[in-house]
Amino acid sequence: MCTTILKTIFKTTLSSAFLASSIALIPTSSQAKEVCAQDISYVADRGHENKERSLSMLKAGFKAGAAKDFKGFMGIASTSYIQHSPDLADGWEPVWGLLTNRPEGFSSTTKTWLGPHGFLDNGNFLVMFREVDRGDGTGPGKIVDLMRFDSDGKYSEHWDIRQQLSEKTVSGHSETEAHATFTDNPVNYSQREEETNKTIVAGFLNMAFNGGEVDKALDKYVHRDYVQHNPLIADGKKAVSAAFASGKMPALCYDIKFVLAQNDLVVAYSKVTSTQGVSAVVDILRVRDGKLVEHWDVVESVPADKDMPHTNGMF
User: Beta strands 107-110 and 119-122: pairing type?
Assistant: First the structure.
C-alpha cells in the first residue's frame, strides 16, 4: 500500500456485529463474544487530489475495451495488478475478456448519486456502485467495485462484492437508489468533515456491534429518521434496535478493512465472521451533522480458498 495511507486502530474487549442480509449466520451471544475479542484496524486514504487522474485512467480503459483495443487497454494497467474478485482469475486477461465478451442480456447501471460521474473517490481509490444483470439467468444484483491506483496512476488492485436484489424491501425503498430528501438538498463537506465522518462510521460499528452496545450506539450516532435500504429492516433507528432484540439480526464479528469518504458519504468494507462462515460486506452510510441518516449494504459469502480463482483472497 502507498505510504499516504493512514491506518487507524480501534481496540475493543467485547465483540458482536450485525449483518442484516445473512440471516443464516446466527451464533449465540457467548459465541460472538469469544470469536470477536480482537483489535480492529482499517485503512483510510485522504483527500481527492488524484480524482481526475484515476477517473481518466479508468475511462480510458473502458473506451479501449469498447474499441477492442487491447494495447490501449494495457496502457492503464499496473504490472503488479492484484485481483480480489471471487469471479476472476489474477492478471489482466480475465478483465479484458469480461469487458469485451458480455453475454446477451447483460446490463449495468452505475448509481450516479454516489459522486460525480458515479464514483466516490478518496486518495488513490475509486468506488463504484452498480445495479447489474449478468445475463446468466440469475436476475438483477447490486455490486460495489473498489479500485486502487498506484503512485503512477495505473490501475493496480480490484475488489468487488455482489448480492442479488430482493423482490421487495421492508422499508419500501430501493436497495440501490438514494432518498430524494438528501439528493435534493446536497451539502458540500470539507476534507476535515469527511475525516470526521469516517470516525463516526467506525465508531458506530465498533460501539454497536464489536462493543455489543447497539442501543447506546443508535442513540449516539443515528438519526431517528434513519433511511434504510437494507431489504430486511424498516426505516428509523428503532427498527434496527427491534430487529436485534427480536433475534432477526445475527451477531457477527466485524473486521473493518477500508473506510473511504467523499462529501457526506462513507464506504466501509469489512470482513464479517461467524461460527458458520465469512462474508464480505460493504456498508455505505450517509452522514449529516454528525448523525447517520441513510444506509445501504452489499453482502457476499466468501468462497473457500480452494474455490477462489486466485490466491489473493477477497480482502
Answer: unpaired
Contact indicator for 300, 19 with CB cutoff of 8 Å: no
Question: Each residue of 56-84: pLDDT tens digit?
Answer: 999 999 999 999 999 999 999 999 999 99
Q: Which CATH architecture has domain 6-47+179-301?
A: Roll (3.10)
- Per domain, the residue ranges of the chain are 6-47+179-301, 51-169
Question: Quick check: 48 and 16 in contact, CB under 8 A?
Answer: no
> What are phi and psi for residue 100, nearest 5 degrees?
-105, -5
Q: What architecture does CATH give domain 51-169?
A: Roll (3.10)
Q: How far is CA 128 from CA 58, 187, 237, in A?
A: 11, 20, 27
pTM of the shown model? 0.88
HSE (CB half, 13 Å, CA atoms) of 231? 16
Q: Which residues contact 57 (CB under 8 A, 6 or more apart)?
A: 76, 149, 153, 154, 155
Give the tens place of pLDDT for each residue, 76-115: 999 999 999 999 999 999 999 999 999 889 999 999 999 9
